[in-house]
Batch of 4 targets.
Target 1
Amino acid sequence: MLHAHPSKKPEEADVALEEDLEDDVGDVSRLIVYNDDHNTFDWVIQCFIDVLNHSFEQSEQLALIIHFKGKATVKTAPLQELKPKKDALVDRGLSAVIEEC
């Protein structure tokens, strides 16, 4: 919560500008994986564990969502964090893309 400096009038309160916050956090993007007909559940789960550091349970749930819905967001993070993870998943044969939120 932001507070005005005690010696300042309320209209002169310190305010965090949106662009200042973006510099610290980065724009959040989504890493999406699509269903395909050639990767096994076990392989997809293992990829999520190895590349995304997801638990087995989380990886299994995501694999099921992808299978039944055709795609799932497997991770949200700043673009610069997602890019190497997307590349690693694609290198392992998964169909993955990054979309801005």
Target 2
Amino acid sequence: MNEVKAEQVLASGQVIRLVHGDITEERVDAIVNAANSHLTHGGGVAAAIVRKGGVVIQRESDEWVRQHGPVPTGSAVITSAGALPCRAVIHAVGPIWRGGSEDEEEKLRSAALSSFTLAAERGFTSLALPAISAGVFGFPADRCAEILLVAARDFLHEHPESSLREIRFVLFDPPTLGAFLSAFRRLFEPSGESRA
């Protein structure tokens, strides 16, 4: 059972939440998949999404790549959600961590912002994301948390009238959840608005 661990309500009424649990169980308009450029969903979050959502997700992903070529790092594309309890899956291609020398932080921020933009363009109100790039791509969880949370806050501040009213970060393993909670407290608790 997924459990909310922290939330921040912005002045616009938009919400950023941290959830401990399985992203494939989230009842939101769309979930984000931490994808690779070829959209081959073979491991980690991607494999779990296809396992639960069905082969239609992989089939649509293959078709997208066939028509458009590999998805550039830092961008996102959308497919249907198959049997998942959401309406769509947004496949965000985060960077592989190479020590920070190849603009990985900016590419991760771009992957998050691309996901938020795509969700807003579709009129979605709620979006759930994993810790993009922090798994098999090796991005340090503490930096990943800070970059993704700041990207969410900045996007919502800049688009208070957007259809997107809630961004959830859904973390499965306790160490990654811990990294996100620490970053969340640093970003939001000084304002006194956060409930954790």
Target 3
Amino acid sequence: MKLNSNTIIIIVVALIAAAAAYWYFFTGTGNQPPLSVSTSKSQAQTRFQVLANELQPISFNTGIFSDPRFNALVDLTTPVSPESTGRSDPFAPIAGVSGM
């Protein structure tokens, strides 16, 4: 039985893929959690909490809602008229049309 070069290449690639899959799944390198959880606060968490605490005293001026210019705004919505629906089966042959 003689093997040609394409068959040998396919066998070698399959063996390499099987070895890589074995190494990834059974050596433990692919089983680590994506993120590590630490109980102590990191510098980023501390900085985030400082910035979040700075946002607490923010207040918004709602006086614009009592401004006459705001109350003079007009709603310009256009009503959408209902359209007729199409055929229940768009791929069905059209009645009255002869086939080709």
Target 4
Amino acid sequence: MFQTVTRIIKWVSIPVLLLAAMFSCLAASYEPLMDFVICLGAILIVHRAVWLKEYFWAAGFVAIVVVFSPLFLAVKIFLLMGFTCIAALITLFAAFRTQPLPAD
């Protein structure tokens, strides 16, 4: 039951965050607060995804955190590039990890 609820929350959170992001510019003076709430919600989902060892979901929501963070645009771009490079490096380390030879 708990896994079903978690799965539903994950799949519902994506459209909710996207809808909130789409209408955040209409919030006028509340736009920074709305971006902060979107960022905080994505951080909570990242924490939960890492705890459940669902790293693909965590990576997707890290991108949402960076996009809606209150940082300057240049900082956001460099953060996304940095996270992409780190993910590529981890993938390379996993692909070229030494494997023990099978014993005959």
